[in-house]
Known about the structure:
CATH class of the domain at 224-339: Mainly Beta
Mean pLDDT: 77
Shape: rod-shaped
Low-confidence stretches: 34-40, 50-60, 100-120
Amino acid sequence: MADIDGDGAWEEWNPTEESLRPVRGKHRVAKQRGGGLARSGTVLGVGVIAAVGAGGMATAEDRPPVPISMPDIGGMAHEISDSLPDAEALPGIGGLISDSGGSDSGSDSTGPLTQVSQTGTTGTGANAGEALRSRILQQADAQQGAAEEQAREAAEDAAVKQAATRATAAQKTAQDAADKAAAAKKAAELEAKRKAEEAARRKAEAERLAQLAKSFITPVASYTLTASFGQAGDRWAADHTGQDFAAPTGTPVRAVHSGTITQAGWAGSYGYRIVLTLDDGTELWFCHLSSMVKTSGKVNTGDVIGRVGATGNVTGPHLHLEVRPGAGDPIDPMPWLRDHGLNV
Protein backbone atom coordinates (compact mmCIF):
# COMPACT_ATOMS: atom_id res chain seq x y z
CA MET A 1 0.00 0.00 0.00
CA ALA A 2 1.41 3.48 -0.81
CA ASP A 3 1.02 6.81 0.85
CA ILE A 4 0.88 10.25 -0.77
CA ASP A 5 3.37 12.79 0.58
CA GLY A 6 3.53 16.51 -0.17
CA ASP A 7 5.22 16.28 -3.57
CA GLY A 8 2.70 13.78 -4.93
CA ALA A 9 5.12 10.81 -5.06
CA TRP A 10 4.10 7.28 -3.85
CA GLU A 11 6.13 5.38 -1.30
CA GLU A 12 5.52 2.34 0.91
CA TRP A 13 4.23 3.05 4.36
CA ASN A 14 4.23 0.79 7.39
CA PRO A 15 1.92 1.94 10.16
CA THR A 16 3.35 2.26 13.67
CA GLU A 17 1.95 3.02 17.07
CA GLU A 18 3.02 6.63 16.67
CA SER A 19 1.49 7.08 13.21
CA LEU A 20 -1.89 5.54 14.15
CA ARG A 21 -3.78 6.79 17.15
CA PRO A 22 -6.35 4.19 18.32
CA VAL A 23 -9.66 5.75 19.07
CA ARG A 24 -11.75 3.71 21.51
CA GLY A 25 -15.49 4.09 21.35
CA LYS A 26 -15.47 6.80 18.71
CA HIS A 27 -14.91 6.41 14.99
CA ARG A 28 -14.84 9.06 12.33
CA VAL A 29 -14.89 8.79 8.55
CA ALA A 30 -13.63 11.26 6.03
CA LYS A 31 -16.05 13.11 3.86
CA GLN A 32 -16.10 12.18 0.20
CA ARG A 33 -14.62 14.84 -1.96
CA GLY A 34 -15.27 14.93 -5.67
CA GLY A 35 -16.48 11.30 -5.64
CA GLY A 36 -13.25 9.97 -3.99
CA LEU A 37 -13.04 7.14 -1.50
CA ALA A 38 -13.16 7.74 2.29
CA ARG A 39 -9.76 7.59 3.92
CA SER A 40 -10.72 6.87 7.50
CA GLY A 41 -9.51 3.69 9.25
CA THR A 42 -12.88 3.40 10.93
CA VAL A 43 -14.77 3.15 7.66
CA LEU A 44 -12.28 0.59 6.45
CA GLY A 45 -12.83 -1.41 9.65
CA VAL A 46 -16.59 -1.38 9.12
CA GLY A 47 -16.06 -2.54 5.58
CA VAL A 48 -13.94 -5.44 6.86
CA ILE A 49 -16.73 -6.41 9.27
CA ALA A 50 -19.24 -6.43 6.42
CA ALA A 51 -16.90 -8.47 4.24
CA VAL A 52 -16.17 -10.98 6.95
CA GLY A 53 -19.89 -11.22 7.79
CA ALA A 54 -20.73 -11.88 4.16
CA GLY A 55 -18.03 -14.53 3.81
CA GLY A 56 -18.91 -16.24 7.06
CA MET A 57 -16.71 -15.43 10.04
CA ALA A 58 -17.50 -18.81 11.64
CA THR A 59 -15.42 -20.55 9.00
CA ALA A 60 -12.28 -18.83 10.30
CA GLU A 61 -12.25 -20.85 13.54
CA ASP A 62 -9.47 -23.14 12.44
CA ARG A 63 -7.57 -20.61 10.34
CA PRO A 64 -4.75 -18.26 11.40
CA PRO A 65 -5.56 -14.57 11.92
CA VAL A 66 -5.68 -12.57 8.67
CA PRO A 67 -3.46 -9.49 8.75
CA ILE A 68 -5.15 -6.26 7.67
CA SER A 69 -3.14 -3.47 6.08
CA MET A 70 -4.49 0.06 6.23
CA PRO A 71 -3.56 2.81 3.81
CA ASP A 72 -1.19 5.46 5.04
CA ILE A 73 -2.61 8.87 4.40
CA GLY A 74 0.35 10.57 5.93
CA GLY A 75 -0.20 13.86 7.57
CA MET A 76 -3.58 14.19 5.98
CA ALA A 77 -5.01 11.62 8.38
CA HIS A 78 -4.19 13.83 11.33
CA GLU A 79 -5.47 16.94 9.60
CA ILE A 80 -8.81 15.55 8.50
CA SER A 81 -9.57 13.26 11.45
CA ASP A 82 -11.35 16.03 13.32
CA SER A 83 -13.57 16.82 10.36
CA LEU A 84 -14.81 13.25 9.85
CA PRO A 85 -18.32 12.36 11.07
CA ASP A 86 -18.91 9.86 13.87
CA ALA A 87 -19.34 6.23 12.85
CA GLU A 88 -22.54 5.99 14.86
CA ALA A 89 -24.10 8.59 12.55
CA LEU A 90 -23.66 6.51 9.42
CA PRO A 91 -26.83 4.72 8.24
CA GLY A 92 -26.76 0.99 9.11
CA ILE A 93 -23.37 1.29 10.76
CA GLY A 94 -24.02 3.07 13.99
CA GLY A 95 -26.17 0.27 15.36
CA LEU A 96 -23.49 -2.34 14.74
CA ILE A 97 -20.77 -0.26 16.33
CA SER A 98 -22.84 0.81 19.30
CA ASP A 99 -24.02 -2.75 19.98
CA SER A 100 -20.62 -4.29 19.76
CA GLY A 101 -18.94 -1.51 21.66
CA GLY A 102 -21.51 -1.29 24.40
CA SER A 103 -22.18 -4.94 25.06
CA ASP A 104 -18.88 -6.65 24.36
CA SER A 105 -16.89 -5.12 27.15
CA GLY A 106 -14.69 -8.18 27.42
CA SER A 107 -13.25 -8.03 23.82
CA ASP A 108 -10.00 -6.34 22.94
CA SER A 109 -10.88 -3.20 20.92
CA THR A 110 -7.26 -2.51 20.08
CA GLY A 111 -6.78 -5.73 18.12
CA PRO A 112 -7.99 -6.58 14.63
CA LEU A 113 -11.72 -7.21 14.37
CA THR A 114 -11.23 -10.48 12.58
CA GLN A 115 -8.91 -11.63 15.28
CA VAL A 116 -11.37 -10.69 18.00
CA SER A 117 -14.22 -12.51 16.31
CA GLN A 118 -12.04 -15.51 15.70
CA THR A 119 -10.93 -15.53 19.32
CA GLY A 120 -14.53 -15.59 20.51
CA THR A 121 -15.45 -18.40 18.11
CA THR A 122 -12.35 -20.34 19.02
CA GLY A 123 -13.22 -19.97 22.69
CA THR A 124 -16.71 -21.29 22.07
CA GLY A 125 -15.35 -24.31 20.16
CA ALA A 126 -12.75 -24.93 22.82
CA ASN A 127 -15.41 -24.78 25.52
CA ALA A 128 -17.60 -27.21 23.55
CA GLY A 129 -14.66 -29.58 23.03
CA GLU A 130 -13.72 -29.36 26.68
CA ALA A 131 -17.31 -30.07 27.67
CA LEU A 132 -17.40 -33.08 25.30
CA ARG A 133 -14.08 -34.31 26.64
CA SER A 134 -15.37 -33.84 30.20
CA ARG A 135 -18.55 -35.83 29.40
CA ILE A 136 -16.48 -38.62 27.78
CA LEU A 137 -14.19 -38.77 30.80
CA GLN A 138 -17.20 -38.79 33.11
CA GLN A 139 -18.78 -41.62 31.13
CA ALA A 140 -15.49 -43.53 31.15
CA ASP A 141 -15.17 -42.98 34.90
CA ALA A 142 -18.77 -44.08 35.40
CA GLN A 143 -18.23 -47.20 33.29
CA GLN A 144 -14.99 -48.00 35.09
CA GLY A 145 -16.67 -47.41 38.44
CA ALA A 146 -19.58 -49.65 37.42
CA ALA A 147 -17.14 -52.34 36.25
CA GLU A 148 -15.18 -52.09 39.49
CA GLU A 149 -18.41 -52.23 41.50
CA GLN A 150 -19.58 -55.23 39.50
CA ALA A 151 -16.20 -56.93 40.02
CA ARG A 152 -16.35 -56.13 43.74
CA GLU A 153 -19.89 -57.50 44.02
CA ALA A 154 -18.85 -60.61 42.07
CA ALA A 155 -15.87 -61.06 44.39
CA GLU A 156 -18.11 -60.61 47.43
CA ASP A 157 -20.63 -63.09 46.03
CA ALA A 158 -17.84 -65.58 45.33
CA ALA A 159 -16.48 -65.06 48.84
CA VAL A 160 -19.94 -65.53 50.34
CA LYS A 161 -20.53 -68.68 48.27
CA GLN A 162 -17.09 -70.03 49.21
CA ALA A 163 -17.73 -69.28 52.87
CA ALA A 164 -21.14 -70.94 52.62
CA THR A 165 -19.54 -73.97 50.93
CA ARG A 166 -16.90 -74.19 53.64
CA ALA A 167 -19.53 -73.78 56.34
CA THR A 168 -21.64 -76.51 54.73
CA ALA A 169 -18.61 -78.79 54.48
CA ALA A 170 -17.68 -78.08 58.09
CA GLN A 171 -21.27 -78.67 59.17
CA LYS A 172 -21.35 -81.93 57.22
CA THR A 173 -18.03 -82.99 58.75
CA ALA A 174 -19.33 -82.15 62.20
CA GLN A 175 -22.59 -83.95 61.45
CA ASP A 176 -20.69 -87.01 60.20
CA ALA A 177 -18.54 -86.96 63.32
CA ALA A 178 -21.65 -86.63 65.46
CA ASP A 179 -23.31 -89.48 63.55
CA LYS A 180 -20.23 -91.67 63.98
CA ALA A 181 -20.08 -90.82 67.68
CA ALA A 182 -23.79 -91.58 68.03
CA ALA A 183 -23.37 -94.85 66.11
CA ALA A 184 -20.38 -95.81 68.25
CA LYS A 185 -22.31 -94.93 71.39
CA LYS A 186 -25.30 -96.94 70.22
CA ALA A 187 -23.07 -99.89 69.31
CA ALA A 188 -21.42 -99.69 72.74
CA GLU A 189 -24.82 -99.55 74.39
CA LEU A 190 -26.03 -102.51 72.35
CA GLU A 191 -22.87 -104.46 73.19
CA ALA A 192 -23.25 -103.60 76.86
CA LYS A 193 -26.88 -104.60 76.69
CA ARG A 194 -25.98 -107.84 74.95
CA LYS A 195 -23.34 -108.61 77.52
CA ALA A 196 -25.74 -107.77 80.32
CA GLU A 197 -28.41 -109.94 78.76
CA GLU A 198 -25.88 -112.74 78.24
CA ALA A 199 -24.76 -112.44 81.84
CA ALA A 200 -28.37 -112.43 83.00
CA ARG A 201 -29.11 -115.45 80.82
CA ARG A 202 -26.13 -117.30 82.18
CA LYS A 203 -27.11 -116.41 85.69
CA ALA A 204 -30.67 -117.54 85.08
CA GLU A 205 -29.38 -120.76 83.50
CA ALA A 206 -27.09 -121.35 86.42
CA GLU A 207 -29.94 -120.79 88.81
CA ARG A 208 -32.12 -123.08 86.78
CA LEU A 209 -29.47 -125.77 86.66
CA ALA A 210 -28.89 -125.35 90.35
CA GLN A 211 -32.56 -125.77 90.94
CA LEU A 212 -32.65 -128.75 88.61
CA ALA A 213 -29.66 -130.20 90.32
CA LYS A 214 -31.78 -130.43 93.38
CA SER A 215 -34.33 -132.47 91.46
CA PHE A 216 -32.01 -134.40 89.04
CA ILE A 217 -29.25 -136.76 90.06
CA THR A 218 -27.02 -139.33 88.38
CA PRO A 219 -28.47 -142.88 88.28
CA VAL A 220 -25.57 -144.27 90.35
CA ALA A 221 -23.41 -142.47 92.87
CA SER A 222 -20.09 -144.03 91.82
CA TYR A 223 -19.46 -145.26 88.27
CA THR A 224 -17.16 -145.49 85.28
CA LEU A 225 -18.36 -144.46 81.83
CA THR A 226 -17.81 -147.21 79.28
CA ALA A 227 -19.76 -147.67 76.03
CA SER A 228 -21.25 -144.36 74.77
CA PHE A 229 -24.22 -143.48 72.60
CA GLY A 230 -23.84 -144.38 68.88
CA GLN A 231 -20.85 -146.57 69.39
CA ALA A 232 -20.63 -149.57 67.02
CA GLY A 233 -20.04 -153.15 68.27
CA ASP A 234 -20.62 -156.79 67.34
CA ARG A 235 -22.76 -157.34 70.39
CA TRP A 236 -25.55 -154.97 69.23
CA ALA A 237 -27.85 -155.36 66.30
CA ALA A 238 -27.35 -151.59 65.67
CA ASP A 239 -25.15 -148.87 67.08
CA HIS A 240 -25.25 -148.43 70.84
CA THR A 241 -28.48 -146.69 71.88
CA GLY A 242 -27.56 -145.54 75.39
CA GLN A 243 -24.79 -144.78 77.91
CA ASP A 244 -23.21 -147.45 80.10
CA PHE A 245 -22.29 -146.77 83.74
CA ALA A 246 -20.01 -149.57 84.94
CA ALA A 247 -20.38 -150.36 88.64
CA PRO A 248 -20.21 -153.47 90.88
CA THR A 249 -23.18 -155.79 90.97
CA GLY A 250 -25.71 -154.73 93.59
CA THR A 251 -24.88 -150.99 93.42
CA PRO A 252 -28.13 -149.04 94.05
CA VAL A 253 -29.82 -147.57 90.97
CA ARG A 254 -31.66 -144.28 91.76
CA ALA A 255 -34.53 -142.46 90.07
CA VAL A 256 -32.92 -139.60 88.15
CA HIS A 257 -36.03 -137.45 88.60
CA SER A 258 -39.51 -137.82 90.01
CA GLY A 259 -41.92 -139.65 87.77
CA THR A 260 -44.00 -142.78 87.33
CA ILE A 261 -42.78 -146.32 86.72
CA THR A 262 -44.73 -147.46 83.69
CA GLN A 263 -42.87 -150.76 82.91
CA ALA A 264 -40.77 -153.19 84.92
CA GLY A 265 -39.64 -156.72 83.99
CA TRP A 266 -37.56 -158.90 81.65
CA ALA A 267 -36.75 -157.27 78.28
CA GLY A 268 -34.64 -159.81 76.35
CA SER A 269 -31.16 -158.50 75.52
CA TYR A 270 -31.80 -155.60 77.99
CA GLY A 271 -32.20 -158.10 80.88
CA TYR A 272 -34.26 -156.76 83.69
CA ARG A 273 -35.49 -153.26 82.75
CA ILE A 274 -37.46 -150.48 84.52
CA VAL A 275 -39.10 -147.67 82.46
CA LEU A 276 -39.55 -144.38 84.37
CA THR A 277 -41.82 -141.84 82.64
CA LEU A 278 -41.29 -138.21 83.62
CA ASP A 279 -43.99 -135.56 83.75
CA ASP A 280 -43.00 -134.15 80.31
CA GLY A 281 -43.41 -137.59 78.68
CA THR A 282 -39.69 -138.47 78.50
CA GLU A 283 -38.95 -142.16 79.15
CA LEU A 284 -35.82 -143.29 81.05
CA TRP A 285 -34.79 -146.94 80.57
CA PHE A 286 -32.75 -148.59 83.34
CA CYS A 287 -31.43 -151.94 81.93
CA HIS A 288 -29.31 -155.07 82.89
CA LEU A 289 -30.53 -154.84 86.51
CA SER A 290 -29.75 -157.66 88.88
CA SER A 291 -32.98 -156.90 90.79
CA MET A 292 -35.91 -154.46 90.72
CA VAL A 293 -36.86 -152.64 93.93
CA LYS A 294 -39.81 -150.58 92.59
CA THR A 295 -41.90 -151.85 89.70
CA SER A 296 -44.80 -149.37 89.59
CA GLY A 297 -46.19 -146.15 90.94
CA LYS A 298 -44.84 -142.71 91.66
CA VAL A 299 -41.25 -142.23 92.72
CA ASN A 300 -39.27 -139.18 93.79
CA THR A 301 -35.81 -138.01 92.80
CA GLY A 302 -33.17 -140.22 94.42
CA ASP A 303 -35.47 -143.13 95.23
CA VAL A 304 -33.76 -146.53 94.78
CA ILE A 305 -35.65 -148.46 92.13
CA GLY A 306 -33.18 -151.32 91.37
CA ARG A 307 -29.59 -152.62 91.54
CA VAL A 308 -26.73 -152.91 89.05
CA GLY A 309 -26.44 -156.35 87.43
CA ALA A 310 -25.27 -158.21 84.32
CA THR A 311 -28.51 -159.63 82.98
CA GLY A 312 -29.23 -159.74 79.25
CA ASN A 313 -26.60 -159.33 76.58
CA VAL A 314 -23.61 -158.06 78.59
CA THR A 315 -19.98 -158.85 79.28
CA GLY A 316 -19.95 -157.47 82.85
CA PRO A 317 -22.03 -155.67 85.46
CA HIS A 318 -23.13 -152.14 84.46
CA LEU A 319 -26.23 -149.92 84.15
CA HIS A 320 -27.40 -149.25 80.60
CA LEU A 321 -29.37 -145.91 80.58
CA GLU A 322 -31.47 -144.75 77.61
CA VAL A 323 -33.31 -141.40 77.21
CA ARG A 324 -36.32 -141.33 74.85
CA PRO A 325 -38.15 -137.93 74.67
CA GLY A 326 -41.88 -138.35 74.13
CA ALA A 327 -41.40 -142.17 74.27
CA GLY A 328 -39.77 -141.98 70.82
CA ASP A 329 -36.30 -142.75 69.48
CA PRO A 330 -33.37 -142.66 71.89
CA ILE A 331 -30.99 -139.64 72.13
CA ASP A 332 -27.56 -139.26 73.66
CA PRO A 333 -28.08 -139.32 77.45
CA MET A 334 -24.96 -137.28 78.30
CA PRO A 335 -26.08 -133.88 76.85
CA TRP A 336 -29.55 -134.44 78.30
CA LEU A 337 -28.14 -135.04 81.78
CA ARG A 338 -25.90 -131.93 81.48
CA ASP A 339 -28.87 -129.84 80.32
CA HIS A 340 -30.55 -130.79 83.58
CA GLY A 341 -27.73 -129.59 85.75
CA LEU A 342 -25.76 -132.79 86.16
CA ASN A 343 -21.97 -132.80 85.89
CA VAL A 344 -21.25 -136.11 84.21
